[in-house]
Write a sequence for this structure.
């Protein structure tokens, strides 16, 4: 005997966890970054600093990537009620974060190429002027990081106000990608300042391109981690999440007198803190229904959609 039940799905339920503060913050940071990008590229070319020029081109890709993050928020919000998105539009934000990580890898490659070229073809550098621009760039990055940090804090407060358990909380990976771009920019600004100071005081002109290479390695490492985090979500790799064990504990308690067992279970994420699951159950209980199973699962608020199949044996 089979009993099937599809819980009623609403797009608004998942998208209600959106992050308007992050969308505003990403948009503001995009414009700030774009302005500073133009200043640094021009200054790096004018003062002949590879570290400063690399930081400027680095910033250009950040402006695009952060703009992509802002676009992802806007698109997810715009299509949040579109019924063609079976499980809502949250993954648009994840896709934005994934694309941003690819941009970061491109930036790292560009920084390595430019720095290696400058190692073999050194050029005179106007150190004092370049240092001033690099310091301004660092200050801009700090301001941008504070804007995105405040957006993250605002969302955290709103999120915990909805009563979710703390263990269900996940980072906003789209916001994290924008934040990583800003932090990477700040790191390369610091490296540029160190390279310029070393060259100015000690004549170490080689330090400028070397710092560019070190910055590229840092950027590539951050990009790799971000690719892994967003890739897991896009590929629905959630079966090692604690929510899977929680579902099993609810359906197969230790005092399992009616010998109820889960024979097939699939869990995937449809929101930052929202999961859907499809499960097949074999039970000796003649009275177990999908609604009773769903009632047991309601203690875990992160499970927002269930598809349940019950096989009665005996």
């Amino acid at each position: 005997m089979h009993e099937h039940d599809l819980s009623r799905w609403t797009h608004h339920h998942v998208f209600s966890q959106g992050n308007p503060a992050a969308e505003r913050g990403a948009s503001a940071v995009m414009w700030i970054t774009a302005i500073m990008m133009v200043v640094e590229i021009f200054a790096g070319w004018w003062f002949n600093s590879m570290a400063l020029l690399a930081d400027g081109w680095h910033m250009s890709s950040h402006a695009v990537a952060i703009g992509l993050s802002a676009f992802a928020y806007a698109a997810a919000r715009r299509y949040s009620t579109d019924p063609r998105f079976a499980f809502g539009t949250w993954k648009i934000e994840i896709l934005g974060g994934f694309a941003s990580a690819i941009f970061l890898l491109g930036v790292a490659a560009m920084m390595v190429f430019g720095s290696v070229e400058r190692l073999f073809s050194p050029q005179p550098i106007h150190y004092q002027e370049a240092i001033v621009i690099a310091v301004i760039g660092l200050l801009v990055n700090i301001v941008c990081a504070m804007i995105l940090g405040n957006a993250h804090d605002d969302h955290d407060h709103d999120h915990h106000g909805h009563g979710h358990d703390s263990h269900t909380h996940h980072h906003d990976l789209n916001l994290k990608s924008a934040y990583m771009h800003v932090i990477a920019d700040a790191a390369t600004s610091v490296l540029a300042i160190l390279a310029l100071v070393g060259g100015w005081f000690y004549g170490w002109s080689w330090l400028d391109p070397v710092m560019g290479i070190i910055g590229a390695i840092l950027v590539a490492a951050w990009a790799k981690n971000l690719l892994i985090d967003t890739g897991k979500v896009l590929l629905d790799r959630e079966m090692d999440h604690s929510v899977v064990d929680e579902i099993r504990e609810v359906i197969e308690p230790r005092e399992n007198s009616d010998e109820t067992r889960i024979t097939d279970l699939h869990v995937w994420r449809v929101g930052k803190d929202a999961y859907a699951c499809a499960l097949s159950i074999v039970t000796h209980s003649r009275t177990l229904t999908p609604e009773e199973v769903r009632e047991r699962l309601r203690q875990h608020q992160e499970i927002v959609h269930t598809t349940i199949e019950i096989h009665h044996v005996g």
